[in-house]
Amino acid sequence: MNARVQGPLPHGPEWDFELLEQYDHVIAETAAEYALDTYPNQIEIINSEQMLDAYASSGLPLGYPHWSYGKAFIRHDQAYRKGYQGLAYEIVINSSPCIAYLMEENSLMMQALVIAHASYGHNSFFKGNYLFKQFTQADAILDYLVFSRRYVMECEQRFGTAEVEEVIDSCHALMDYGVDRYRRPQPQSAKEREARKSEMEEHERRQFNDIWRTLPAVAPSAAATAAAAFPPEPEENILYFVEKHSPRLAPWQRELVRIVRKLSQYFYPQIQTKVMNEGWATFWHYTLLNRLYEKRIVDDAFMIEFLHNHTNVVTQRGFDQQGYHGMNPYALGFAMMQDIRRICENPTAEDVAWFPELARTDWRKSLDFAMRNFKDESFIAQYLSPRLIREFRLFCVADHVGKAELEVDSIHDDQGYRRVRRMLADQYKRENMLPDIQVARYDRDGDRSLTLRNQIFRGRPLAEDEANEVLRHLGRLWGFPVRLEAVDADGRVDGYREWRP
Amino acid sequence: MNYLIDRRLNGRNKSAVNRERFIRRYKDHIRRSVKGMIAERSITDMAKGGEVKVPAKDISEPSFHYGSGGDWETVHPGNKEFVRGDKIPRPEGGGRGRGGSGTGSGDSVDDFVFTLSRDEFLNIFFEDLELPNLMRTAIAEAEDRKLIRAGYVKEGTPSNLSVARTMKTALARRIALGGPLKEELEAAREELETAMRSGRPMGEIEVIQARILDLEGRLARLPFLDDVDLRYRHRVSVPRPAARAVMFCLMDVSASMDERKKDLAKRFFTLLYLFLTRKYERVELVFIRHTDEAQEVDEDTFFYDTQSGGTVVYSALELMHEICTSRYPRSDWNIYAAQASDGDAFGADPAKSARFLREQLLPLTRYFAYIECPDENHSGNSSLWVEYEELQKPAPNFAMRRVYSPGEIYPVFRDLFRKEKV
Fold first, then answer.
1. pTM of the full predicted structure?
2. ipTM beyond cut 0.90
């Protein structure tokens, strides 16, 4: 190991690779003290233009060509040039090795902060959280991106850019519905099927009773035959259904659908864990750099610059302040992580009453448990403490149809804590962000039409124009009539819209 | 193991392909914007980038999401005075009071505005014109030739003799031919010395001395300069497009030329101007307007100042000729002219003009285009048209067309330049 010169490390606006290595080294040592489990790191320095490129492709290092990325690029580029928008200090990619992009414009302190934040914070989250474990394969994603890019470009050459673009456009419209929320069961092997079959036969044999033979046979009713509808269960992953069952798509088009679906699935855990992920990374850059300061590896000036930046990141504006855009995931996540540590280390009577399982435990273990086993919704529902609700002064506003005014539903008081916590958690629920639309029927033997069902949730309607547009896109992929029926809470069909080729 | 990689030198224009896709997809919008820009701009700053607006509606990527309505609860931070049960009036504008939660995409209806680079602008501008072909076929290659240095040759005129180069070659030759002799001479001298020192017989010494004399003679006979050493500077003549061009815009501004016709003319002039700027480093513009007498004016006056009077085309041609000879000698300038008129000319004027054009102007100009913007419902040939038509056959650098509406400008322009190919 390279021996480090004692005394604080230098800092300032300029950085060089040697210094970055030194910082990375001490941060890695400190992270090891806390037993942070990470993928190997790959830290890459890029300039602002490359950062804009990365922005445009949702932070992925490469992607297939598509106009929507061009649009995103133009938008970011304009905003950046005109000064409406700063650029992120870093982008980190859930892959193994975990790639973190650092902007060359960052000062040395910022680079250290970003290394701690991305390469140790986010990285360990990617490796530990159950959603990421379930749905993404960190070591395969980069290869898959390379494959998808090459595949799309090959298709463009063979079948024409416009044709490929059409399919991808349609898939993008349905991208939110290309996600499995639960892992699909592995297909059974022949052996398993065999075992299952004999198990069932055994079961039947034991249940055998000669008396049943005496029952008169009932002719299968018309309703029962009609009920042999397909799919037997509603399918929430619309793109998956299209890929597997579309009557019209050519094999290469199916592969394109698959590519978009995989990409969407890759982003799914990130969307579901925004607060936790950012909170965790922010918590760790804060903890690690403070530890460096305790060890006197960095000096006061470094810390002051650091705290200035850190505070900017974790500022939560009030609802009535300018620049308020809802809850700041950094602020909420960081506060909750800190709070868990506090409850573990010095709980108040209130904390003991609310979180008996946390109080006076090893904070490292409890926090690690929280990181591994939750997503935003469940994390908030589980860990948001009354103290934080008071600190953030959270309140819940109800906006109900048929009432002329909004009503304050609950605030940060004894009656309100649980309800505010529930409501905030619900806000991160997928149902709350996306209408519930699933594939209900595929009329395989009739007109081959596809019927989607929109289960209306709390009377919230779909955005009309866009729903029709999306339906048109789906129709393009499906090639036969597609229908979208709205079903109210009682299961009554409220009305439907249709697209015919 | 951690890796630190410097990616700054990697390609930065990764998004270029996506940007280009975007532009291709929204070409119609962009083309419309470009047309708008053409109308607004003066001819000389036509060739710039520009802002393009695409309505947000057309560019949106649709997805299923909630519309307004239904029951919502939203949690906000920063409560100051609210308590349970407080009523708050609904915010204006049909907002759901949901803050930034819910749909992340936002329902903003602002137009999507972005800037076209100069090249992108020109590409779209010239898109219909198939410019690369035009460049080759339409405008004859410039005749100017320029001598440029192209190394050295063995033959040439004395004035082109390169002394330094010749000396170099001579030196090389002398070393190449004299080197072995010198070595031999050196050896012989040494031999002589040892022979003398060791007291060899005289006969032997004399042989060596004779050899030395012979070698010295041969060395001395190596010429300092030889014919084969001579090197001359070589020059080849390459065709050089004259870097300068002047474009004459001639327009009839008599009362019969209304705004519509002028607009048509302006578009045509613009096209020609842009076309020329792609080919020449510097393009000057001369605006000549005429009624019954011709005037040289600036661009604004040319297009927007109203003047009325009769029509004498001849006066404008004459003025152009005058300006050509005094300010733009043919040897230094590529002369282009575009004339726009509604074709009304009277008496002897058309015939006189045509003759003047044929005899005096066409030999001077590289290209002379005449466009006629007749009244919309006009049919039949104008007097000027009839006379000019005679010119078309013998003069390949003369072209004429009729234009009725702005939509025809591109095709006509293209047509004009394509004609020569046939």
1. 0.68
2. no
